[in-house]
Design brief:
By secondary structure, this protein is an alpha+beta fold. The protein has 4 domains: about 5-165, no CATH class; about 175-290, 2-Layer Sandwich (Uridine Diphospho-n-acetylenolpyruvylglucosamine Reductase, domain 3), CATH 3.30.465; about 295-375 and about 385-510, 3-Layer(aba) Sandwich (Vanillyl-alcohol Oxidase, Chain A, domain 3); about 515-550, no CATH class. It has helices spanning about 5-15, 35-45, 70-80, 80-85, 95-100, 125-140, 195-205, 225-230, 235-240, 265-270, 310-330, 375-380, 400-405, 405-420, 465-480, 500-505, 510-520; strands at about 50, 120-125, 145, 165, 175-180, 185-190, 210, 245-250, 255-260, 280-290, 290, 295-305, 335-340, 340-350, 365-370, 390-400, 425-430, 450-455, 540, 545-550. The strands form 5 sheets. Strands 15-12-14-13-17-18-16 form a 7-stranded antiparallel β-sheet. A 5-stranded antiparallel β-sheet has the order 5-6-10-8-9. A hairpin with a 4-residue loop joins strand 5 and strand 6 (about 185-190). Helix 11 packs across helix 14 (about 405-420). The radius of gyration is 23 Å and the shape is globular. The structure holds flavin-adenine dinucleotide and 2-acetamido-2-deoxy-beta-D-glucopyranose (9 copies). One 2-acetamido-2-deoxy-beta-D-glucopyranose binds near residues 405, 406 and 409. Flavin-adenine dinucleotide (FAD) binds next to strand 3, helix 8 and strand 10. It comes from Aspergillus ellipticus CBS 707.79.
Length: about 550
């Protein structure tokens, strides 16, 4: 007899992928009939949208719409703007997923197909829409995708042949003056799943509050951002966005609406607070702590490598990276970027701080320090708008110990990485100043001084070059940082989609518990996202089909 492990291996190799083992596609007999789609659309009051790729107007043989060179030119000029994509029911921002099969930059004669885009989208506005969508995907064995802004770098908010639940229009915002629970009494904000950073910040500011939210104004709040951890300029002061959450309102795979809080469904609450978007349930709203507005001091800095020796240039970067630890200890945070051309700080922020706390860090370069009456004012004034990230990314959380005891080797690694033409962005922060709440945030965050994100060039015209750059990220660039941070990890929202051992790197020792919670709430694994908890049990085939790896 074969030992059990060997038997399993043979089974794995010889069992063909059967149709039930895969989610249905338009080519499979199990795909819903036109009548079933129509009935669904009626139930949804006409809010079912068949996907038309944005760039279909750029192609003469597109089955979706007619070619227009003027509309295409307009689309090309706005393609880098996040709003082009977050107002679309189906356009993911990550270029790897958003452009190859219907590319606004390819010749008009190039084909336009859906590729990794979803097939249909539900424009949800109510809890009933959520339940209808989830039930329909269960009944018909369809791939379900939850899609909010489409900011996700790892392609988690898109998927071939899928039915998407689009949460963008759930825009309710309520300030709760005195939220009261066993664990917390104080002001809070309740946000619908579609509320974006700038909307939430504006509403909070109007009532004299601030909340932890991302640097990019158009990222969501109650969604992939807070569910995945969520950093920002207030994260040293108050903790990560996931640490602020008081309760989630969520529709489960069983189609039930539940509240997840420390008192109610505490395991769901624990998992949603840091365990990653799109896999445990569909969030309808999130209630989080807000904090009193504070006067804030901010500074920005640009140092060019032109005209100085590389040694002098990298010395400036090194002194900043080391010196800013004092700032993060006081509750400040710094967003910086280095390439082999420039070092920029955009900006460094100390909520509640004064000018004196930032003086002496400009090294004689143009260092603009400004005091603002509120965090809102600095956020609006000093935070450059971000475009869609036209890069392929990878990331690493850098433990404070690496910065403190191995700074020379660390900066040497950054320099070597930059010399490949890579852009390196860093967020220096300390997300454990206020203690560490019991949630699913990757424990590696708590010892980290910097979240590093690397970006290699994305070429809209050359898939071979992009594949080579992905390989460079996984095989060459990230290993240079991993070598110095064996006790580190990566931020699951800003990471390499091909990260080896991603379960440990993205989730740390929380993975086993997250996986068990996932299986309890979602035994049929309706909620799938690339590199999400449980996704190792699924594989995406060449033709886009999503299939169970065990084939049964
Ligand atoms: C330009 C840019 C700037 C960024 N800046 C920051 C930053 O400052 N700080 C930071 O921490 N991160 C930042 N990020 C990363 C950001 O946190 C992730 O991209 C995150 O996934 C965005 O969430 P989203 O819901 O807006 O995007 P989407 O791509 O729509 O969704 C992301 C994931 O969340 C899931 N999801 C969405 N809505 C729900 C819901 N209602 N219920 C359950 N699952 C849901 C989706 O299925 C998907 O898995 C940035 C990204 C970009 C592109
Ligand atoms: C759903 O119904 C609306 C309103 O009748 C219609 O405009 C839309 O095209 C329909 N969606 C699909 C996918 O057929
Ligand atoms: C963002 O894209 C727009 C449109 O292409 C462009 O005008 C703008 O300069 C870009 N902004 C940044 C910060 O790159
Ligand atoms: C989605 O629904 C919202 C709210 O009803 C509506 O304003 C919007 O136009 C719809 N979007 C699309 C693309 O149908
Ligand atoms: C908030 O509610 C708590 C408990 O009900 C109460 O003790 C406290 O005085 C309230 N605070 C404010 C500012 O209303
Ligand atoms: C600093 O921010 C101000 C205000 O946004 C901007 O005008 C200036 O160009 C920035 N300077 C540097 C060096 O980044
Ligand atoms: C510092 O980095 C070097 C080079 O990778 C490594 O050999 C050394 O062990 C590291 N030292 C510490 C204290 O981590
Ligand atoms: C910067 O990176 C580019 C691209 O890899 C490279 O060609 C160049 O030599 C680098 N410059 C320096 C000063 O190292
Ligand atoms: C964060 O700050 C706390 C309190 O000052 C300190 O004990 C801890 O070492 C710091 N951690 C990091 C990762 O900077
Ligand atoms: C595409 O990129 C590859 C790898 O970098 C390169 O060898 C090839 O010449 C490029 N093709 C075109 C058409 O530019």
């Amino acid at each position: 007899m074969l030992p059990p492990l060997l038997t399993l291996t043979i089974l794995l190799l010889t069992t063909p992928v059967t149709s039930q083992a895969c989610r249905c596609t338009p080519a499979s007999p199990c795909w819903p009939t036109p009548q079933e789609w129509t009935t669904l659309n009626t139930t949804l009051s006409g809010n079912l949208i068949a996907t038309t790729p944005l760039a279909s107007i750029c192609h003469t043989n597109s089955p979706f719409s007619t070619y227009s060179s003027t509309s295409c030119a307009a689309l090309r000029s706005t393609w880098p703007l996040p709003s082009t994509h977050y107002t679309s029911p189906s356009s993911p921002m990550a270029p790897w997923f958003g452009t190859f099969t219907c590319n606004p930059f390819s010749p008009p004669t190039a084909p336009c197909t859906l590729g990794p885009l979803v097939q249909n989208t539900v424009n949800a506005t109510t809890v009933a829409d959520y339940i209808t969508t989830i039930r329909f995907t269960q009944t018909h064995n369809l791939r379900l995708v939850i899609h909010n802004t489409g900011h996700d770098y790892l392609g988690k908010s898109t998927g071939a042949h899928a039915l998407a639940l689009w949460t963008h229009h759930l825009k309710s915002i309520g300030i709760i003056a005195n939220y009261t629970s066993v664990g917390y009494t104080g002001p809070a904000i309740k946000l619908g799943a579609g509320v974006q950073v700038i909307e939430a910040m504006a509403a909070a500011h109007e009532e004299g509050y601030v909340l932890v939210a991302g640097n990019c104004q158009s990222v969501g709040v109650a969604d992939g951002y807070s569910q995945g951890g969520g950093h920002g300029q207030l994260a040293s002061m108050f903790g990560l966005a996931a640490d602020q959450v008081l309760e989630w309102e969520v529709v489960t795979a069983a189609g039930e609406v539940v509240v997840a809080s420390p008192e109610s469904n505490p395991d769901m609450y624990w998992a949603l607070s840091g365990g990653g978007g799109g896999v445990f349930g569909a969030v309808v709203s999130m209630t989080s702590k807000v904090h009193l507005e504070v006067k804030t001091v901010t500074a920005n800095l640009t140092v060019s490598a032109a005209g100085v020796s590389p040694e002098v240039f990298w010395e400036v970067a090194e002194r900043f990276v080391a010196g800013v630890l004092d700032v993060t200890d006081k509750g400040g945070a710094a967003i910086w970027m280095v390439t082999n051309q420039t070092f920029e700080v955009t900006p460094v922020t100390v909520p509640g701080g004064t000018r004196g706390e930032l003086e002496g860090e400009g090294f004689g370069y143009t260092y603009n320090i400004a005091e603002f009456p509120s965090f809102w004012d600095t956020y609006v004034e000093m935070n450059p708008l971000s475009n869609v990230t036209e890069a392929q990314i990878g990331g690493r959380l850098i433990p404070r110990s690496t910065v403190e005891s191995n700074l020379t080797a660390f900066m040497g690694a950054l320099r070597a990485i930059a010399d490949y033409g890579t852009a390196i962005s860093g967020v220096s922060l300390n997300v454990s100043r206020n203690g560490v709440p019991d949630n699913a945030v990757n424990p590696a965050w708590r010892d980290s001084a910097i979240d590093i994100v690397l970006g290699t060039t994305f070429d809209y015209y050359n898939r071979t070059a992009d594949l080579a750059n992905q390989k460079l990220m996984t095989d060459v660039l990230l290993p240079m940082l991993e070598e110095l941070t064996s006790d580190g990890g990566a931020y699951l929202n800003e990471a390499d989609i091909h990260q080896p051992d991603w379960q440990q790197v993205f989730y740390g020792d929380n993975y086993a518990r997250l996986s068990a919670i996932k299986q309890r709430y979602d035994p049929n694994e309706m909620f799938y996202a690339r590199t999400g908890v449980g996704s190792e049990r699924w594989t995406e085939l060449e033709d886009g089909r999503l299939c169970r790896v065990d084939g049964v």
